[in-house]
Amino acid sequence: MSTLLDAGRLAFGTLSVLPVRPPRRVDGPVGGAAMLLAPVVGVVLAALVAVPAGLLVGALDRPPLLVAVLAVGALALLTRGMHADGLADVADGLGSGRTGEDALAVMKRSDIGPFGVVTLLVALLAQVVATAVLLGADAQLGAAALGLAVVLGRTTLPWLCTPAYPAARPGGLGALVAGRVERPAAALVVLLVAAGLGAGAWFLTDGDADRTRWLVAAALGFLVGQGCASEVAARCLRRFGGVTGDVYGAAVETAVTATLVVTALVAA
Questions:
Q1: Using alpha carbons only, what angle is made at residue 152 by residues 67 and 154, rounded to the nearest 5 degrees?
Q2: Closest by alpha carbon to 72, among 132, 154, 133, 138?
Q3: Which residues contact 129 (CB under 8 A, 6 or more apart)?
Q4: pLDDT tens track for 241-266
Q5: Alpha carbon distance 113, 116 (integer Å)
Q6: Cα torsion for 144, 198, 38, 151, to the nearest 10°?
Q7: Helix (H) or strand (E) holding 213
Q8: pLDDT-based confidence at residue 174 (cuts at 50, 70, 90)
Q9: Rounded to a whole number, what is the distance in angstroms from the first to the last CA of the chain?
């Protein structure tokens, strides 16, 4: 029980700005358990961002584009911009054309290079536009789709922390959690998330043919989002020799962006 409590504190303290007590123990088992709880953090973040967005557009008739900007900005604030920073750093590392320690050195720099700036700008713009399209098409389902993307972004972390993705360097978050999640546990978490979100989507569609299109869109968004995150992680594995905290952040942002874009293209 103490490990689970410390894991929850580590998960929320690392992946959000929500006030929690620091864990009493931080080690490999606690780190691995924390990554299994990452989707739970995603659920809380989704509620804090998606519910107000749906109410602003649906109940108060506020402009979807403005609400989308606020939602994406709020999500960045709630996560300290950590995942966005990871995406920019990984883009610089991959774009540098270097490998191994040389590429990792590029990622550790405090400044953001041109690859990072462009990648981050495109990703955030895509998130804003896709969210605005979804909210404009249906405020309730659009908010649900936004929440789905937020949760699925954090669902990448359990499988990224399996032994298939070793740490690229000692020290930091990557070394703490890399390889600490067993494959069956990661698979179970992904299946539970998929089942839970699928049940919620089915309830929202209520068998309506037009709304069922949203269910199909959400399923495609789930598959494409996880697939894109997997491709980013695979490229980092080949170029850097492993994963880092920045790679985790890049995978989260990639999954969120791809899920939102695919859902918007299919549903709206």
A1: 100
A2: 132
A3: 68, 264
A4: 999 999 999 999 999 999 999 999 99
A5: 5
A6: -20
A7: helix 209-240
A8: confident
A9: 44
